[in-house]
């Protein structure tokens, strides 16, 4: 059973309630809005132990001020970004949470934003807008080289690590993944399951790192089929992983499923 609770916000954001230091106490991940968080906590009789923020975008931190009026709890966020409401700036290698449980290690994963961090613990990854199911975040502040390195790091986490990302973009991402690799049976099978979940109004998230390694084109720049597809779109001949990644990211930016 999955102990992580999805709280829907805005059009396609997820705010995650993750296991905290003890039963009944949760970590609130990326509260872009406070009201749905407060309602979800009340409905389940839960209290927040602390907040984890991945990056400074409003749809991930917009609820901090209102939450601070309700709860006096630590708010962790990337030290390399200035986020009003963050009380405990964190960077690469820091451990957040308590000895008792709900401990998460901080990974610096720049690319979507300059200071973006992810949190990993107990085989769960909270990665904001860096890695999406079958996709990745846009490059707003960082470079393709940085994002490629960040994604490569996440791909090397244990295969059964569950991936909790910030948005329900899965079906659109899979349409692109299919365009890149039309013959990848894992993408087609994953897409069938994802469609069924969306039809039932369920999140397609979490996936696992093993899933992502088999379906996510942005983690598959070293696969011959992905390289060929990128070469046919890119017109450039450089075949470093980062160059393939950059071509895929530009292709996706202009892709209409
Ligand atoms: Zn973002
Ligand atoms: Fe976002």
Would you mind describing this structure in some detail?
The chain has a single domain, classed as Metallo-beta-lactamase, Chain A, CATH 3.60.15.10. It is globular. It has a six-stranded mixed sheet with strand order 1-2-3-4-5-6, covered by helices on one side. Strand 7 and strand 8 form a beta hairpin. Helix 4 crosses helix 9, helix 5 runs antiparallel to helix 6 and helix 8 packs across helix 9. The chain has 257 residues and is of the alpha/beta class. It contains nine helices and 14 strands. The site of zinc ion (ZN) has 4 residues, from loops.
Helix/strand layout:
Blueprint: E1 5-9, E2 13-19, E3 25-29, H1 35-44, E4 47-52, H2 58-61, H3 64-70, E5 75-78, E6 88-90, E7 95-98, E8 101-108, E9 117-121, E10 124-128, E11 131-132, E12 135-136, H4 144-155, E13 162-165, H5 170-180, H6 185-199, E14 207-208, H7 209-215, H8 224-234, H9 241-253
Parallel strand pairs: 3-4, 4-5, 5-6, 10-13
Antiparallel strand pairs: 1-2, 2-3, 7-8, 8-9, 9-10, 11-12, 13-14
Helix pairs in contact: 4-9, 5-6, 8-9
The structure holds zinc ion (ZN) and fe (iii) ion.
Fe (iii) ion binds next to helix 2.
Small-molecule binders: zinc ion, fe (iii) ion
Looking at the overall shape, the CATH architecture is 4-Layer Sandwich
Q: Which regions are unreliable across 5 or more consecutive residues at pLDDT < 50?
A: none
The CATH class name reads Alpha Beta
For the record, give the distance between the C-alpha atoms at the N and C termini, rounded to a whole number: 34 Å
Find the CATH topology: Metallo-beta-lactamase, Chain A
Question: Beta fraction of the residues?
Answer: 15-25%
What share of the residues lie within helices?
Answer: 25-40%
**Rg computed from alpha carbons, rounded to a whole number of angstroms:** 18 Å
Give the overall form. globular
Largest sheet: 6 strands, mixed
Q: Tell me the CATH superfamily.
A: Ribonuclease Z/Hydroxyacylglutathione hydrolase-like
- What would the average pLDDT be, to the nearest integer? 95
The number of distinct helices, counting runs of at least 4 residues, comes to 9
Total tally of structural domains: 1
Strand arrangement across the biggest beta sheet:
1-2-3-4-5-6
């Amino acid at each position: 059973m999955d102990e992580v609770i999805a709280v829907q916000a805005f059009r396609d954001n997820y705010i995650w309630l993750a296991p905290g230091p003890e039963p009944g106490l949760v970590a609130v991940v990326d509260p872009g809005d406070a009201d749905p968080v407060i309602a979800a906590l009340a409905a389940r009789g839960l209290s927040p132990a602390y907040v984890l923020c991945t990056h400074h975008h409003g749809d991930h931190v917009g609820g901090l001020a209102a939450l601070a009026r309700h709860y006096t709890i630590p708010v962790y966020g990337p030290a390399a970004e200035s986020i009003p409401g963050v009380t405990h700036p964190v960077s690469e290698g820091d451990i957040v949470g308590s000895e008792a449980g709900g401990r998460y290690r901080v990974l610096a994963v720049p690319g979507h934003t300059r200071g973006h961090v992810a949190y990993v613990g107990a085989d769960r990854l909270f990665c904001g807008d860096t890695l999406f199911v079958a996709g990745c975040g846009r490059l707003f502040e960082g470079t393709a080289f940085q994002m490629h390195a960040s994604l490569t790091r996440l791909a090397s986490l244990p295969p059964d690590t569950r991936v909790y990302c910030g948005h329900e973009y899965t079906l659109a991402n899979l349409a692109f993944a299919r365009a890149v690799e039309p013959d990848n049976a894992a993408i087609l099978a994953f897409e069938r399951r994802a469609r069924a979940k969306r039809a039932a109004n369920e999140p397609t998230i979490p996936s696992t790192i093993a899933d992502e390694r088999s379906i996510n084109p942005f983690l598959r720049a070293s696969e011959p089929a992905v390289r060929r597809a990128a070469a046919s779109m890119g017109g450039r001949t450089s075949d470093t992983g980062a160059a393939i990644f950059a071509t895929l990211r530009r292709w996706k930016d202009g892709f209409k499923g």
